Prior knowledge:
By secondary structure, the chain is of the alpha+beta class. The chain has 9 helices and 8 strands. The chain has helices at about 25-30, 50, 55-70, 85-100, 105-110, 115-125, 140-150, 170, 220-230; strands spanning about 5-15, 80, 130-135, 160-165, 180-190, 200-205, 235-240, 240-249.
Amino acid sequence: MLxxxxxxxxxxxxxxxxxxxxxxxxxxxAHGRLDSIATSEPKLKDMPPMLRRRASAGGKMALEAAYHCxxxxxxxxxIFASRHGECxxxxxxLQELVMQLPLSPATFSLSVHNANAGLLSIARGDxxxxxxxxxxxxxxxxxxxxxxxxLADGAPQVLLVVSDSPLPEIxxxxxxxxxxxxxxxxxxxxxxxxxxxxxxxxSWEPLASxxxxxSSTPAMLDILRFFLRGDDTLSRITNKQHWRWSRHA
Length: 249
C-alpha cells in the first residue's frame, strides 16, 4: 500500500566528482563506460576567494554543483543533503582536544552540518531558506521530500544539493556502504499538468525490516544514475522503507 508520494520537475542539473566534471563524462559514468575517479578539487570560480578558501574539499564539490544550477539573480531556497557532512573537520577537532591543543574557531564554525549552506548564503547575499539534512542511507529521499514540501508551500523553485565524501579512517570499518567523493544538484519545480515535460516522482511505504542488497556505489549515486540514464524506475529498500523513484512522460 502506497504511504506517500511527491512529484516534481528537474529544471536543471549538475554533478561533480574528481575526474568526472563534464556532462559527457557523467553520461559515460551512468552507462558504465567510466569507472575511475581521479584526485582533484573543483576550482569554484564563482565563489569569492576569501570564502572559497574556507570550504573543505567536500564542500567545494557541493558548492560547485550548486552554482551550476542556481539562477544568478534569484533568491532560491536550498537544501544540502549529506550523510557525513563535515565529519573530517569534527574528527580533527576531537583529535586536537585529545592532544590538548588549542582549537581553531574558524575550523569549529565550519565543522557544522550547515557550513556550506552558510558559505553559499554569504557569497550570494541570499537570505532564502537554507537547510541541511542527514538521514543515513535514505538522506537523498528525505531531502527530496523536504524540497517538495517547500514547493508545496509556495516556493517557485528549490535547489537540492546532494554530496558526500569518504569517512575519516577511524570510522570506515563501521560503515558498510561504498564511499566515493561526489556532489550533484537538481533545481526543482512543482509538477504541473501545464508543463509539457517529463516529471519524476518518489513514493514510499514502510516495511517491517530491511532487505537491502549491497551496492558498489553510494545509494545517492544510484539515484543520480537512474536520472542520467533516463530509467523508468528505481527501487530502493533502506531504513525499513521501500522507496520507488519513477519517471513519467
